[in-house]
Amino acid sequence: MYRLVNGFSRKRSWSAPTVFLTGVTGFLGGAFLSDLLQSPFDGEVVCLVRADDDDSAEERVRRSLSRFKTSRFTTSYSLPRNVKVLRGDLLSDEWHDSRHLDNVTHVLHLAASTSFGNSRAIRTTTVGGALSVAKAMRGRGLERFVYTGTAAICGASPNPVVHEDDFPSERATHLVAYTRSKAEAERQLAEQFADLPLVIARPSIVVGHTELGCKPSGSIFWVLRAVEALRFITWDLENRIDVVPVDWAASALRHLLFAPRLKHQRYHVSAGKGGSVRWSELAAEYARLRGGTSEDRYEIGGMRQLTAKRVMEAAGDGHPRHLLHALELYYRFCSLDLVFDNCRLLKEGVAAPPKFTEYMRVCEESSTASIYDQMRTDLEPSLTLA
To answer: Which of 124, 228, 268, 306 counts the highest number of beta carbons within 10 A?
Structure first.
């Protein structure tokens, strides 16, 4: 027997899974729910959402889903019947005994503080939130608990090709509190909740959507726009950058959540050796998109040459010193020349991601906001708690 949910045919099953999802209002969380509703998923999803009342909580989920409308899938104003919203604060235990959690079989924990700022709340939210969800799920007979961390827990001085079991490491030197808190959350989950069927998924740099570009979110893409506007870098053009689109990352997470058997506990959700791109390739693509030549497109120098005046002249509106501070953080990451090995993920049957240069045009064409406005999403202390 089949039923239609938003025009998608789904087969009913008496043993259908129930997914507990956190972070649905975030970029990757919204993409995951959208992807799940387009897949042959016949179970229920319980979304933990922070809000003042039930109507506001549901509205937040609707808004998140609406960002991912494509030619293949649109969301109606009402949520599908198999999407349930549980209102609650991630750091509280008031929702732990909710009846909505009675039949949960799979957990995808995405909620965290995603800011690259230095707020003290980053650790509290990321580590405390992960432990709160694990506590709520203990003893429920789960089939899988996927914790979504970040490949950047490797810190500032790893080997050029990073493998999953190299980290987390106490010796890693972190550039921002976000990556440090993600590494700590992994360690504490492993130490305190070894009884859970824990799988670690570590996305690399998630930028744009292969069809929608930056319409759902301009996160991180503003850095590339700023580099192009400034025509200035502090690293070699042969350095690589490991970037994946949000729709591919969401599909990979769905695979890790539901695959009957997995060979490993840790996986990079990344471009890897085959999908990462060199800055020389990005320069060539920008030359195709905007004209000019790729050779000598960018001046190479030191951070002292990147002044607020230069930023203001290149990027236009916004607060140049604020933008300069943000660029200093991301320029340090760009200079690392890292690739996150994804062989484990590909061997599990996940298709290789598209190269960033394959969908870079749609990201550029959909970036209607200023560089400064796109940047604020990543630097403001926003807490993607639900």
So the answer is: 268
Domain assignment present for 72: yes
User: pLDDT under 50 in the chain at which residues?
Assistant: 1-14, 381-386
Domain containing residue 60: CATH number: 3.40.50.720
Any domain includes 306: no
CA 219/CA 375 separation, integer angstroms: 7
Residue 10: predicted pLDDT: 36
Burial of 348 (C-beta count, 10 Å sphere; 0-12/13-18/19+) = middle
Rounded to the nearest angstrom, the gap between the alpha carbon of residue 326 and the centroid of all alpha carbons in its chain is 19
pLDDT, tens digit, 9 for 90 and up, residues 95-149: 999 999 999 999 999 998 876 666 678 999 999 999 999 999 999 999 999 999 9
73: three-class secondary structure by DSSP: strand
In a domain, 50, yes or no: yes
Q: Are 2 and 11 in contact (CB under 8 A)?
A: yes
Residue 16 structural domain: 2-208+242-275+338-355+379-384
Q: What is the pTM of this model?
A: 0.93
Tokens representing residue 255 in the block: 């695979």
Amino acid 198: pLDDT: 98
CA distances from 372 to 94, 115, 171, 232 (A): 38, 15, 34, 17
CB-based contacts of 84, cutoff 8 Å, min separation 6: 44, 45, 46, 47, 100
End-to-end CA distance of the chain: 33
Among 116, 130, 231, CA closest to 174: 116
Q: What are residue 84's DSSP bridge partners?
A: 46
Specify the number of domains making up the chain: 1
Burial 305-336 (b: 16+ CB within 10 A, else e): ebeeeebbebbeebebeebbebbebbbebbeb
